[in-house]
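Me: I keep going back and forth on a fold encoding question. No explanation is needed for now; the record alone will do.

Assistant:
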Amino acid sequence: MLARRVPGILPPLGSDEAIAVSLVHSLVGTGKGLMRARPFRSPHHSASVHALVGGGSAHITPGEASLAHCGVLFMDEFGEFRPSVLDALRQPLQDGEVTISRRAARVRFPARFMLIAASNPCPCGFLGSARRPCTCDHVAHARYRRRMSGPLMDRIDICVPVNVEDPDRVLDHEVTAQSAGMRERVVRARGRQEERQGPTHLNAGLDGAELRACVGLTADAAMAVRSHAESVSSRGLTSLQKVARTIADLDGEERIEAQHVHLAWRLRMPAGDDGRGGWS
């Protein structure tokens, strides 16, 4: 439910984005004129590598990763996808495109999407639950975790545990936040990024030199980043700064403060390792 509401808080497609999305969808016959809504794709966990990233022999077609370009790729039951399928995401998550090579052709499809993955903490789904005991053994836990390789998880910037809600709270219909209000905040943050970096260089797509030029760390924030440097890879450290930069943009701050770095670090901590419930 949360994942399906993400497109509603994202800014509308720009003209260039709408054309790119429409062109990709026209290749598989799903496009109906110029598309204005951000795509939301949700492949089943039985999907093949071909279905996820594209392929074919006589006729190469884009997969779900490219059909989600400029939108959301939602992968429910993330831990149930085959490891080969999950690892196929590594290139598009890193480069924002998919390259498919065949004997007669080499094709590149755009694939810059927001990946949202949801997974249970174990096969039975009750690891860490206070209501029901987990029925999985250590072998099942290890096998389940191995499906999601370290290099893939290193490319995921935010990992949030989702606890079981109190039934009274679930039945309480009081609205605490609406998509429209959240979207205004996101649009303002996106505007700050475009003003600082240009319309085609959002925080997530910055390379090392661009990030150093615009990250804007205060002295305390730089010290906070250094304190985490030995706990993550170089890619993870870059990701940490990008998320901190985005949090600062959401707060309307020109420079990254230490609290932005600490929050980015807490959001990056692998969920499920502390026994607090499911993953999102």
Observations:
- Residues 271-280 have pLDDT under 50 and may be disordered.
- Residues 3-172+272-279 form a domain with the Rossmann fold fold (CATH 3.40.50).
